[in-house]
Amino acid sequence: MPKAFFVDTSRCTACRGCQVACKEWHDLPATKTRQRGSHQNPPDLNPFTYKLVRFSEHRINGKVEWLFFPDQCRHCVAPPCKDVADSILNGAIVHEEESGAVLYTDLCKLLSKADCKDIIDACPYNIPRYNSGTGMLTKCDMCIDRQLAGMVPICVKTCPTGTMNFGEREDMLALAEKSLARVKKDFPDARLVDTDDVSVIYLVTQKPDMYYKYVMADASAAAPLLPGNNNGVTRKEFLANLAKPVRRVIG
Prior knowledge:
Blueprint (H helix, E strand, L loop, with lengths): L2 E6 L8 H9 L26 E9 L2 E9 L8 H7 L6 E3 L6 E3 L8 H10 L6 E3 L4 E3 L5 H5 L5 H5 L5 E5 H15 L7 E3 L6 E5 L30 H9 L8
Parallel strand pairs: 1-10
Antiparallel strand pairs: 1-8, 2-3, 4-5, 6-7, 9-10
């Protein structure tokens, strides 16, 4: 059965153990950065950083509060990036059935830079990155190699606080609901994010946009295109169709 992450941000201390472990396991080089007035480092995901703990600072009830968000690929249940890739080159992106992992294959190297941009633009969570040196699209691969060896993803293995959890999708959804009931006692605005659409289920204690612009997919895309239009198109299908590239005609 498909697997899922459950990420309880109420437990995150921004130790960044998950971020460092991900980089080490995938043998990714360091990213040269400089001080920008934030503890978030590097400033964004990049071809060599698949997981990033995002920092945001707010004044809540008269107190300065830091909100932490371990950002990564959501491994969508119906991935729009794959829908777009399939319209260009079948097999460039695969959706692994047993784990639910969305994987970018070496066939991505055959895509043009413009095609890669179309695929990137299809992601409602702003996740894929383009490596200009290799021509590859990169992102979290759900540690599929570790799973095949009977191990959990390295970010989950490393997390010391219980923020990161991984297992059967049904089990993670049950844990998420149980955790939400507990967290709501202290944080009435707490919620689960996009549970029906993704395999990385986040619990946030505040409104999602207080953490980061792309914590949740664009909610407007969930609605029918016109009032009363019951065409059965899901949000992911809508996003994928919206982002599908116009086929380039060479005159």
